[in-house]
Batch of 2 targets.
Target 1
Amino acid sequence: MQRLLVLLAVLALALVVFVANTCSQPAPNEPFTIVWNYDTSGYLETCGCSAHQLGGLARRVHQIDKLREQQPLLAIEGAHVVADAGEFQLFKAEAVVNILNIAHYDAMQLGVREAQHGAAGIARLTELAEFPCFSANLEVGGQPWATPSVTVEIAGADVAITGVSQPEAVTFELEDGTGFSDPEAALDSLLPQLRQDADIVILCFEGERTWIRDMISRYETSADLFLAGCRNKATANWDFVPEPPTLNNWDLGRYLGIINIDPAPGGFTVAGTSLALKDELPEAERVVGYLSSRYRPQLKEKFFSAMKTDIEQLYLPPESCWGCHELQYETYAASRHSHALETLEEKNQLYNPDCMPCHVVYDPNMDELAAMNCVVCHSNIDEAHLWDAPKGTTAPPDPPVVSHTYEYCVRCHDELNSTAFKDEWPRYVMQIYHGGNMSTAEEAAERMGIDINEPPSGHVEAEAPAETEPE
Ligand code: HEC
Ligand code: HEC
Ligand code: HEC
Ligand code: HEC
């Protein structure tokens, strides 16, 4: 009997609290901040590799710490934490998650680049994360594979976060059937409940711009804030759109998406912006410490234990050409190409899988890295060339040596890493020309079989950065 009374009393109390909460208290009861990023793409730190370099997680976390001092903060990582598949990239994704742990993140979306690592890879990330990882339409073998939504209580409000990826954005096929189910079916069954239970609903989209636009208009009344992860260079922007509240964010983690929720009569207001994480901004010491004392040594260890043969191999060092091609050797030695290894070393990015393909090769004989060199461009030189081509002869080698020229330069000199190449390529050609004493770009180009009036056709448009930057 006594027990029943206690139970009734508890029930009555619960009811009172519940009623009080829904009727008189506005939710949220104080302002709070949401920070969000899409497309960190493995850019853990500023690398100085492109024209307007910004970003890095250490810098981002410093800003988050500062904002958190001012008012309660909800930190959400959008998807695309690394740019590709593979063991190295998964290791990087783990480093991102470690840093998000350090920064006390609340949730992370699992998107296309996370799914690319398959169910086993996703498990490595979700086990490591001290926060829930969500997706309403991630599936493995036809089964839903993630927490569909996350609810966080902040400033007296229940904030529900969910998100979907566009299935068409999947460019890979995995044996375990990791992919994305119909996003509309997933949201149609999920959102009504979230709308009913939560005070604020956040809906994250990952996909192509027009798809995102369509999805936002379809679910306009089902959520209070839309976070749009879209890497279409031409159409994506960082502007916050108030109707309905939408923030777009992407571009290698170089901008921090910041949204302010303020209580207002009858509800709350939403306002947002993107902060460019510029070089002048300080870095969070504990992230810098993690990167130097844990991440980098582990990355190096991983490179030598497992990954070294994944990058292009050096089979003949430049010094072995010197005896017969002194001029070419001297030109190379004076060019930036011979310093491409040092550059990564200076930037502390020696074993970064996102830098190595253009800057360095692996030398299996010395078991170390070497700078991008002669045999990268002359890719079919063999031992026979060294021994059979007698010093001093001028007969063309048989088989002929490949000289990758111009069209090949853009494999590395793409928009992101060599912005000036497209417009100033004659200067570039001239600078590394080593066929003789040519004094003009025209002569050198002709010697290389290049039409001086034609810029390289293979110029790869990198997906970043966009022309406009938020202030
Ligand atoms: C023992 C001498 C010798 C060594 C060592 C040597 N080469 Fe050659 N190489 C020649 C000769 C001889 C020719 C043909 C004449 C010429 O073009 O200079 C030649 C031609 C070439 C050509 C021009 C091919 C063409 O179609 O005109 C390239 C490129 C080349 N070598 C690259 C290399 C590279 C790279 C190395 C070092 C990895 C190297 N060679 C080492 C002797 C050598
Ligand atoms: C395998 C990748 C790769 C290829 C192919 C390549 N480069 Fe480069 N190039 C680099 C890298 C990396 C640097 C920057 C090195 C550094 O400073 O650390 C560079 C730098 C240069 C520079 C110096 C730029 C400056 O402002 O000082 C010139 C010039 C250049 N490359 C010309 C060329 C030309 C011309 C071609 C094609 C014939 C070419 N490169 C092909 C990777 C490449
Ligand atoms: C797609 C090929 C490519 C990748 C990937 C790449 N780079 Fe480069 N990098 C280049 C080229 C080409 C240049 C020369 C640009 C120029 O002068 O036009 C360059 C230049 C640089 C420079 C400027 C060198 C100087 O002193 O002028 C730095 C620093 C650099 N890269 C660092 C990095 C780092 C760090 C990464 C990895 C996060 C990276 N790069 C990834 C191709 C690449
Ligand atoms: C960025 C790419 C690149 C690199 C690096 C490079 N070369 Fe070349 N090389 C070329 C191109 C393109 C040509 C053809 C145009 C010319 O003659 O310069 C060429 C031509 C040559 C020739 C033939 C020259 C002639 O008179 O016909 C030789 C020999 C040669 N390279 C040797 C070397 C050696 C040795 C190294 C390294 C020390 C080296 N190259 C590094 C791109 C490269």
Target 2
Amino acid sequence: MIRIFFLPIATGMAALTIGGATISQASADDEAAAFDENCTTCHIEGDIPQWREQFPNTDDGRERLDTFLQDHHASDADDRALIITYIEKAL
Ligand code: HEC
């Protein structure tokens, strides 16, 4: 009785957790991948807090970062959007 009751619940929970993680991680993975591909040749994660001081998470800060990155190793608009989100989430 215990096994029959326990297994379907355990399986259902695992499926839910995996489903949720997959959905929310897909874009976070894209953001991390864009940062890795374009930035980590020269930078480390530890650079980000300093950038956030220069380019705060406001409309103005985001715009200035976007303009800066157009000429700084992120000319692709899609990559740039992912990278900016990645930097914003890092703090
Ligand atoms: C080829 C090497 C290289 C790559 C690739 C690179 N950077 Fe830089 N970046 C530098 C150097 C050098 C500086 C100036 C010195 C410093 O602040 O570390 C700099 C400075 C910065 C600054 C500070 C700007 C300022 O006004 O002081 C930011 C923000 C930044 N980079 C973000 C990025 C991001 C995001 C990426 C990925 C899209 C990236 N960088 C890719 C070399 C690079």
